[in-house]
Amino acid sequence: MRPLLTAALLILTALPAAAAPTLQPGLYDISMQIVMKGIPMQMPVMTFRQCLTAQDVADGKAYAANENKDCTISKLSERGNQVSYDFNCAMQGGQRMVGRASGTTHATGYDVLMSGRFVPAMEGMGEFSQKLNAKRLGDCTPG
Q1: Pairing relation of β-strands 71-79 and 82-90?
Q2: Would you say the pTM of this structure is higher than 0.85?
Q3: What are the boundaries of the signal sequence (predicted)?
Q4: CA neighbor of 141 nearest in space, from 26, 29, 56, 23
Q5: What DSSP element (H or E) covers 36?
Q6: Who has greater pLDDT, 14 or 63?
């Protein structure tokens, strides 16, 4: 009887980590800052609002904050409040943007750092990092 009780207690103490809330669909305020390696003058922080669906959350596109429909997310991993994925985005002129992203997530937002490169390099710009911060504002409005 005692081994059964011990096993039950171990399972219960592991539940909060395993049952971390996933990102809720809804309207998000997203800030994004891109840092280009080798470029002295950096881009300012951009802020926009985006409606994220349950499908966006399920396939990982919610964490990419990219309107580019030619982006694929692969190797999506969500463990506890940690998220990571690989991305590969087609761009104009046959270029691609490829890399890896990781960060933390909770029910009403996330903080993700994307690190990648342009293939081929764009006018001396090869590597980049992009910081994303999202906060849920509420439900999406129809329209």
Answers
A1: antiparallel
A2: no
A3: 1-19
A4: 26
A5: strand 26-36
A6: 63
